[in-house]
């Protein structure tokens, strides 16, 4: 059994044990919230270790990749193709959420139960920084050190694009620096392997903590809503895989196998960021050159959050239904366009989907208090969203590589090399 399969099995074991221990803690401990808080420390530590890696990893791999391309036109061409795919995937995700929430109408069942939060209740979700002006100015870092300190992936990508292009233009004089940055990339990938050894413990703590705090009862209370949302996620997976198959053929199934570990990690920790380094490795094993994967994948983390976008339309209309607000088709389509914009660049914001939804509710006169209906189960929903984001970005990157005629044969368990 190789190390990747062993880690996957350990993560699954951690997931199962977390459910059991969390349930026992919930029904037996006098203060299950205290237990949950203790478990959250373990999860937080792991996620901070991951975040510690992301900024230097994205910068190093992207700069080396662009410098190796050596052609600004090639960078621009790949960027346009990636953004084109991201827009199409966004429309599909948002539309699917809109169709399913109108078909299932889960908000009607919540309205029938009563006990809705008062319209004026405060959800506690801060919605600042979602205007078009804020989004555009947020793209360019005022200081790359500040952008890296805050793990602002989009800002790191923008700086790396300029830096890598400039390094390529300088030519031979920049070669020693590029070699040094390439060494940083190798070191960060090695460090990723060390950090991932803690993943099963982090998964156990994350699941045990949330089950201890919320109990399995919250799953039964919102069972219908969660079931319908997870069905929607499954349909989105099928659609993305089928579209991927159009371009990649049956080989797309091999890609899903390569991404099983980062997908499981994202699902267990409810964090797409936690899966970023392993997703990069999986794409290279699939045959995507690292210089291309290191360029497309970070952009996808800001522009291609498929699971999160589907949830935005699904949850927004659900809240409107719960409060008896009927939204005409024209309003729902306008809402979808608004979400297309406000959902971009939100990867670095904690509980980003809730922030986007809160901003959208206010624009369409839907009670923001409705978010309180979702806070108790948001972690379980975020697990599905995060896993879907990994799959969506993995397929997107592989398809762009195919369009560029830059997709090689799968690599069998070799060290990841940012030079390719």
Automatic annotation (TrEMBL):
Keyword Lipid metabolism in annotation: no
TM region(s), chain numbering: 7-25, 45-70, 82-104, 153-172, 193-212, 224-248, 325-342, 354-377
Domain of life: Bacteria
Keyword hit for Transmembrane helix: yes
Membrane topology: Multi-pass membrane protein
Pfam families attached to this UniProt entry: SDF
Compartments where found: Cell membrane
Stored InterPro entries: Na-dicarboxylate_symporter (IPR001991), Na:dicarbo_symporter_sf (IPR036458)
UniProt entry keywords in alphabetical sequence: Cell membrane, Membrane, Transmembrane, Transmembrane helix, Transport
Chief localisation class: membrane
Protein name: Dicarboxylate/amino acid:cation symporter
Organism: Massilia jejuensis
Lineage: Bacteria, Pseudomonadati, Pseudomonadota, Betaproteobacteria, Burkholderiales
